[in-house]
Specification:
With 215 residues, the chain is mainly alpha-helical. It is 54% helix and 2% strand. The chain contains eight helices and two strands, in the order αααββααααα. The protein has helices spanning 23-36, 40-43, 52-74, 110-126, 143-171, 175-191, 197-200, 204-212, and strands spanning 86-87, 93-94. It has a two-stranded antiparallel sheet.
């Protein structure tokens, strides 16, 4: 039984599907195929002739789904009791605000924060004016800044998992999965300069290590 007030494991399934047969679906398949080659630096590059916004949109949806699944494997260890604040090690603590419903940042437990965060991202991804799924519908002018905010926040979930739950990840033998997903994420945000270096500070050493192996 899950503690009350936490998301049931049912809701921690990727809820955002890219429609089959769509151009975005083709792009996702392309991304998966290049990932299979093992060269992540190459896999994140914009495919020739493609629209940058669309490439970023498809990958953002994919990272959301991956993080949803990764966090889903450790939700039972991330509780109000174990994680009363949303932190990434002793030096970094996050307070939640989304600018609309919660304007002033609030201090809350990690599961609550991640619930707010994932729900907020889900709402952005489901907004057809921000993430159009129909062919020919243009991306809004502020798309890049929205995508950057989403990715900045998704990074915090990786940071929390690495700092507070890595032992659980190891016990579940999920570390290879987590590391590959995070490395892909980092190479992607580096390729298009999507997250400020200061925001990446909680995992700076890991990021350096991932990068040096791959030069």
């Amino acid at each position: 039984p899950l503690p009350s007030g936490s998301r049931s494991s049912k809701t921690f399934k990727p809820k955002k599907n890219i429609p089959e047969g769509s151009h975005q679906y083709e792009l996702l398949k392309h991304a998966e195929a290049t990932l299979g080659s093992g060269n992540l630096r190459q896999a994140v590059m914009l495919p020739e002739g493609e629209d940058l916004n669309e490439w970023i949109a498809v990958n953002t949806v994919d990272f959301f789904n991956q993080i949803n699944m990764l966090y889903g494997t450790i939700t039972e260890f991330c509780t109000e009791g174990s994680c009363p604040v949303m932190s990434a090690g002793p030096r970094y603590e996050y307070h939640w605000a989304d600018g609309t419903n919660i304007k002033k940042p609030i201090k809350c437990s990690a599961p609550k924060y991640i619930d707010y965060l994932m729900t907020w991202v889900q709402d952005q991804l489901d907004d057809e004016t921000l993430f159009p799924s129909k062919i020919g519908v243009p991306f809004p002018k502020n798309f890049m800044s929205v995508a950057k905010t989403i990715l900045k926040r998704l990074f915090r979930v990786y940071a929390h998992i690495y700092h507070q739950h890595f032992d659980s990840v190891m016990r579940l033998q999920e570390e290879a999965h987590l590391n590959t997903s995070f490395k892909h994420f980092i190479f992607f945000v580096q390729e298009f300069n999507l997250i400020d270096r200061r925001e990446l500070a909680p995992l700076h050493e890991l990021i350096e290590k991932l990068g040096s192996k791959d030069r």
